Write a sequence for this structure.
């Protein structure tokens, strides 16, 4: 019984370690992608600021050209922000799917292990019950033999 418990505990610990490792990998991947996106956004913000500075310098030279360039810059920035936001949402959705798959796998493993333990318990209970029945039958046989022997001894002692 203790070997089974030891194996079961070892299996549970291995499963927990694997789950922790998978969670660590997911977290590291998420942090890496978030850092990349943060850097990307900071770079884009710096580029936007530089563009605005250049436009201010050219304001006195060519106002209509500046106005058109500024309008194009705003459109591009908004499109880029939408693209970055869309990429972030897609990555988050992918990570959520991976987490959900890992969660389902962990739950299925836990359910399988619980069923396995229940099966072992049921089998052991059956074996214990059978052992008890066998022991009781043996005790009854021994008791009957003992009683028969006592009766024969009594009869033998009375005939003496």
């Amino acid at each position: 019984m203790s070997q089974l418990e030891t194996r079961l505990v070892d299996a549970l610990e291995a499963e927990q370690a694997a789950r922790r490792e998978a969670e660590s990998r997911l977290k590291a991947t998420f942090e890496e992608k978030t850092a990349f996106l943060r850097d990307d956004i900071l770079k884009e913000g710096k580029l936007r600021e530089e563009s605005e500075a250049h436009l201010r310098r050219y304001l006195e030279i060519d106002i209509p050209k500046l106005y058109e360039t500024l309008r194009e810059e705003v459109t591009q920035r908004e499109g880029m922000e939408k693209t970055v936001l869309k990429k972030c949402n897609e990555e988050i959705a992918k990570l959520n799917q991976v987490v959900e798959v890992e969660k389902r796998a962990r739950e299925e493993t836990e359910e399988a292990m619980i069923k396995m333990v229940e099966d072992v318990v049921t089998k052991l209970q059956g074996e214990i019950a059978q052992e008890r029945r066998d022991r009781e039958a043996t005790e009854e046989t021994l008791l009957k033999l003992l009683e028969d022997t006592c009766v024969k001894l009594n009869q033998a002692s009375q005939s003496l």
Observations:
- The mean pLDDT is 88.
- Residues 2-159 form one domain.
- The two ends are 56 Å apart (CA to CA).
- The first helix runs from residue 2 to 58.
